[in-house]
Amino acid sequence: MPLLDQAVLVLAAMALFTAFALLAQTRLTAAINTFAWQGALVAAVAALTGRASGDAHLYVSALITLTLKVALIPWMLHRLVRRLSLERQADPLQHPALTLLAGAGIVVFSDWVAAPVAHFDASATRNVIAISLAIVLLGMLMMVVRRQAVAQVLGFMAMENGLFLAAVASTHGMPLVVELGVAFDVLVAMVLFGVFFLQIKNSIDSLDIDRLSQLAEPVEDDERGDAP
Amino acid sequence: MNTGALALSLAGAAVVAALASAASGLLATRWPRTLSWLAFPLLALCGAAALAAGIMALASDSTTTAILPLGLPWLPWHVRLDPLSGVFLLILGAVLVPVAIYGPGYTRVFRNGRDSLAALGVFTGLFVTGMLGVLLADDAFLFMVAWELMSLASYFLVTFQHEVAEHRRAAFLYLLMAHIAGLAILLAFGVLAASGGSFAFAVMRSHPPDALWASVAFALALLGFGTKAGLLPLHLWLPEAHPAAPSHISALMSAVMLKVAVYGFIRVVFELLGPPQWGWGVTLVLVGATTAVVGVLFALQQTDLKRLLAYSSVENLGIVFLALGLALIFLGSGHPALAALALVAALYQALNHALLKGLLFLGAGAVLHGAHERNLERLGGLQRRMPRTGLFFLIGCMGMAALPPLNGFVSEWLTFQAALQAWQLGSGLLRILVPVAAAALALTAALGAAAFVRAYGSAFLGRARSRHVRRAHEVGRGMLVAQALLVAACAAAALLPTTVVGLFSSAARQLTGAGLEQAGSRGWLWLTPIAPNVASYAPIPILLVLALLGGLLVWALRPSRQAPVRRADPWDCGYAPPTPRMQYSAAGFAQPIRRVFAMVYALDEDTDAATATHRLLVRDRLWGWLYAPLGAGLDRVADFARRAQTGHVRRYLSWSLITLLVLLWIIS
Amino acid sequence: MDHFLNPLAHALSALLQPLLLLAAAPLLVAWIRRVKARLQNRRGAPLLQPYRDLRKLFAKEAVVARTASPLFRAAPYLVFAATLVAAGALPLLSLRLPSAAVADAIAVIGLLGLARFLLVLAGLDAGTSFGGMGSSREMLVSTFAEPALLLVVFTLAMTAHSTNLASMVQTTLNAGLVLRPSYLFALAALLLVAIAECGRIPVDNPATHLELTMIHEGMLLEYSGRHLALMEWAAQLKLALFAALIVDLFLPWGIAAGFAPGALAWAALALALKLGVLGALLAVAETALAKMRLFRVPGFLNLAFMLALLGLLSHVILEAAT
Asked: What is the DSSP letter of A211?
């Protein structure tokens, strides 16, 4: 197998590792940096696939991912964290060993699910589809187990990373129009998240999503309802 | 007479000797010494005969059957001695002979007590007879009769010291679980007999059930034999019952009876159910791995030496079933040669555990005899008071920790080699599951080493933590000889793995169709289960080099002028000299692991600074999750059913009338 | 001439190789200390200092606690012998050693486990609190380190289809320059496990004098004289063994295929260079990181286990041809 394909596999595996790291990372600033690394790895995969297949538009996709996922969105998230004074906050998992084992189970499951799909692809990097499906599902798992709202955003973004990786691996990228559309959707979502989080923090003084049910209470009535 | 028939006759002689031992136990009511002079030597003869029968059956790779004129008129008892029964006869004999030599010295203390020695003699003999019957049975009827005899006789042995309330409770739980197991096994045989039309195993072999009923029978067999073997979640009787019995009986129960359950499982699943499905193997691997991990985690927290050994038996049986699961996975995926490797690994693990656990239980009995103490928190410093028992116990602990060049390592190595052949499997899921199961096995091995370091270190090293332990004495010659015999057997299993694998591969060939001929391809010194360049292990060179190096170092570093060593007080940081209470307790040793794995245990712990006491109770969560709800549910059902007992005569008559009407309607 | 020399060369190199590693182990430790010192703006002890320490200890009187059993006196010899036999099984200079037949990775790990078992028992033997503390902590670390280590071996064995170290090295050499994600993850995991097993920062501080922070030193607290010398040397040998294991499994280029003296010399030079680089990396890590508290070590080793598991998953998903 040529060196370029091997490099693609290595980078995809490292992206999977960052998905696990996101799952277990307790401090928010470190988690945002891990997310930036994941974006960089996915962009590198796109660039290398573009080099291997000769598709020029993959370079453009890689550049877009780089600007958005590695530079812009982490910068916005860091700024948000500073504004909400969340730098010191830790968000430990309740059962880290179980969560990581569940993550491993998800990877095995993704491999099993993606096996017939990979059967149709003749290229050497067809197994990256299983990895990308695993990254998507791990992003979703992150949204389930993490309580911090900013961590939820990271999980959502990680899912998008996985989808992008799947697109790069299987069909050598999406049409550029779709690419740009998705990218701007993500950007807009980021802005909206920022605005909402400020409001939530001011309202219930916490960004623990388990407490979001408090938002449903009228402000004057203090006796009704209980925070979980 | 050919070797097979000779082996079968020897096995028959073993049964007769066991029955004779039971009968002679009756004499002990009047003459207690006959237990030592008659009953135990007869048991030793039985063990020797069983050992010889087993080795002959394995070496000659023969299968001999016979029909006994006993049993029901239309269902006589079939017996069969083939390599598979040979393996377990070997295990039984190898443990029974040392136990019989150990017995007289150990039971001498019961002679003037309240407990009936005759009961001990009779029921030990019947227990062994039952186990031999199970191993030789070739039809379901004899199998179940012998199985029930084994369970009942061992129940009476567990209640030998029935004045202690805990023993009664443990025995009741044991009897209950044994009967649930027996029921499940009976149902499994029922399913098999339904498809074949007869209770004879020969008929069952030629008429296997279809896939669905085979899975039903598999589930029943797993439930039944798994309960008896102590698999999760039905293992809770084991740590209660095994410590309650006298130590040599605990040795027999842990070392042999659990293996008889394994034998029953192999016989049913590998021979009578027809073509195996790999899904069964996955189930076994998962159950075995969980049992092993949970078993050893609980073994680490026990302060009673015998309970620790009982939980360790749970762990090792989990490993045996994990290896059996690997064999089923390979068989179901069409790799009989790899299945043979996994099966030999499972059988070797069973043999090693039997020898080592027998040795350790006899050692625990010796500690009980010499120091009158079982609790690790009160033992200590026994190595200097009981040097030989200590040495034997150390060898047993090192064997259980799976350290080379001892025998525990060989079976663990073989299991790893079998698991690493998973790359030949087609399914990606299996190719991940099998190495991960092997990683779980590695975790249990590491935890097992910790458990046995703790056991040996707390009991034999350091300083005695209580006065009566300070005055402990070494045990008598018989008990020491028995332990030495088991150590020799362990050494044989450790240093001659090629021979053992060669013997066991005839059993593997019988069950999977493939043997392990390549295991000795580079001579008897090197064990090469797959191919020489894939993996090889040679314990004798390792042991020789270790001994040589050690000797060389001792000689090279011997001091020329001064005394060998100078004795001084241990380091005390410049403060007061350390007392025995200052050394690490067994509970303290396991505290880091207890804290890290806290969610596995149900911990009840508190400290009182004012009185400087620490109370710790480690219980199994399964009591609350499974046993207590089941018990409560049964109580509720019983309460509901009790409403039918109103005490009114006419109500009872009405029930009889209704039943009569219904039956008449059905018949018509 | 060749026929006559070959068996002799075989036997000699089988003996020489572990002895070479044994002789080089204190030098490796001295090199690590030197690099650490330079990073901390100190001059550091001379490179031959560990040899002087060992010589001093061998000459000193051995003092044994009154409460110790015979195991205490036997343990240093057995621990040293077991570690040396394990070191002898590694193919370091040449692939065609007679010890290649017992160079089984699992057996090597088992022999190290034997050494650890005896060391832990020796810690419990004198009946003091510090020994028990060291022993208890060591068992906690090993409970998590051994499965991770074995999983690394399994991951590599799935590619090489063998647990024989010589075969594994041969597979890596035959494949040429290949980027395998499973090997990368396994390397990362092995580095973490090696740090834990050898008792280096961030798991254990080998230079500590505070008994409450000791793991390995705590078990050696009662030893003196030649016993202590043997135990210290065995610990240094263990570090060299793990470094050599990393070199063997992941960076084996330079190893000799036969017994040509030129090839052996070149192999020795390559090995020395690689060990030097690994030692320097360890020194940098020890300077940059702080020692973790004990109950964070399971998390550290869980990371190693996850990396090894990811390596296994990458192998099955990405590399194996279905």
From this structure: G
Give the list of residues 6+ apart from residue C282 with CB closer than 8 angstroms, or none. C32, C195, C200
In B562-621, the residues whose Cβ lies within 8 Å of chain C are 562, 564-573, 578, 580, 582-584, 588-593, 595-596
Report the predicted TM-score, pTM, of the whole model to 2 decimal places: 0.91
> pLDDT-derived band of residue C1, with 50, 70 and 90 as boundaries?
very low
pLDDT at B371 over 50: yes
**Cβ(B621)–Cβ(B600) below 8 Å:** yes
Burial zone of B518 (CB within 10 Å; 0-12 exposed, 13-18 middle, 19+ buried): middle
Q: Say yes or no: B658 contacts chain A, CB-CB below 8 A.
A: no
Q: What distance lies between CA A133 and its chain's CA centroid?
A: 12
Nearest CA in chain A to B428: A112
Beta strand pairing call for C63-65 and B566-568 = parallel
Closest-CA residue of chain A to C318? A127
Q: CB count, 10 Å around CB of C37? A: 15
What is the structure's pLDDT at B98? Answer: 96
Angle between helices B428-460 and B278-299 (to 10 degrees): 20
Tokens, residue C245: 């294991």
Report the candidate in B331, B313, B145, B142 with the shortest Cα–Cα distance to residue B240: B313
Q: Give the orientation angle of helix B83-107 with respect to helix B258-266, to 10 degrees.
A: 170
Query: C322, C315, C318, C321: which is closest to C157 by C-alpha?
Result: C315
DSSP string, B5-16: HHHHHHHHHHHH
Axis crossing angle, helix B258-266 with helix B336-371, rounded to the nearest 10:
170
Question: Domain map of chain A by residue range?
Answer: 3-224
- pLDDT above 70 covers what percent of chain C? 95
- By CA distance, what is A19's nearest residue in C? C310
> Is the bond leading into B405 cis (omega within 30 degrees of zero)?
yes
A-C CB pairs within 8 A amount to: 55
Residues in chain C closer than 8 A to A1 (CB atoms): 178
Stated as kind and residue range, the H or E segment containing B67 is strand B64-72
Query: Rounded CA gap, B555 and B546, in Å?
Result: 14
CB pair distance less than 8 Å for C102 and B456: no
* Identity of the amino acid at C198: C
Best-predicted range by mean pLDDT (C13-17, C157-161, C281-285):
C281-285
CA distance A24 to A29: 13
Helix axes A3-24, A96-120, angle to 10 degrees: 150
C63–chain B Cβ distance below 8 A for any pair: yes
Interface test with B, best of A109, A110, A111, A119 (most B CBs within 10 A): A111
Rounded to the nearest angstrom, the gap between the alpha carbon of residue B243 and the centroid of all alpha carbons in its chain is: 13
The Cα of A13 is separated from the nearest Cα of chain C by a number of Å equal to 6
The answer to which of A48-57, B316-325, C280-289 has the lowest mean pLDDT is: A48-57
Phi and psi angles of residue A84, each rounded to the nearest 5 degrees, phi first: -90, 5
ipTM for this model = 0.94
> Which token pair is B83?
């390599």
Lowest mean pLDDT among B42-56, B364-378, B634-648: B634-648
Instruction: Read off the pLDDT band of C321 (50, 70, 90).
Output: low
User: Any bridge partners for residue C256, and if so which?
Assistant: C94
CB contact under 8 A, B584 and C136: yes
**Which comes out higher in pLDDT, residue A79 or C14?**
A79
> What single DSSP character describes residue A69?
I
User: Which residue, C28, C12, C1, is CA-closest to C198?
Assistant: C28
B661 Cβ contact partners less than 8 Å away, ≥ 6 residues apart: none
Buried b (16+ CB within 10 A) or exposed e, B66-79: beeeeeeeeeebbb
Q: Domain coordinates of chain B in residue numbers?
A: 276-514, 621-667
